[in-house]
Amino acid sequence: MDKKSLKQNIENAFANFKAAINQHQDINIKRADGGWSVGEIAGHIVKSTGVNFGATQNTDRRYDQHAAAVKELFLNFQVKFPANPMLHPDAKQYSSDELFSSINKNLEAVLKMIDNDDLTRTCIDIALPVWGTLTKYEWLILMENHIIRHTHQVADFNK
Domain range spanning residue 88? Predict the structure, then answer.
């Protein structure tokens, strides 16, 4: 596992997401189709980039077994799927400064986790459809590609 590359990819995903947000003067304008505003998308990313993955156990398979499939799903922009209700953004007016502060705090925690944790361990408190439980490494791949997916959404917000 190349933790240096993983950290760089995560940092790039966060930086590109913040740059996409900065392209919008008013992040609280709703989409014409009723979708989330840029601020709400960012609030969703803040909720989904925490590092509390719950209890873990040793992994009895390759630590990256589902990584390619996770990436493929999240980068398939033709497929739509609903967000977990616990990750829905709060209904409020968002501030870029507040969001960036939270995003930066989450990024710092993610980078610290990459440096200090055994990313091959399986997180047993959350099971996903199709894949079941993921390792910390796979969760980080999911996080990176989830951010990329929403960066694309924010960049195409007015299209």
Answer: 3-155
Q: What pLDDT, on the 0 to 100 scale, is given for residue 157? A: 81
Tens digits of per-residue pLDDT, 20-33? Answer: 999 999 999 988 88
pLDDT at 63 over 70: yes
What distance in Å separates the CA atoms of residue 24 and residue 18, rounded to the nearest whole number?
11
CATH number of the CATH domain containing 97: 1.20.120.450
For the chain, what is the domain count? 1
Judge whether 43 and 90 are in contact, CB under 8 Å.
yes
Task: Specify the DSSP class assigned to residue 84.
Answer: P
Distances (CA, A) of 1 to 20, 43, 134, 150: 29, 30, 16, 26
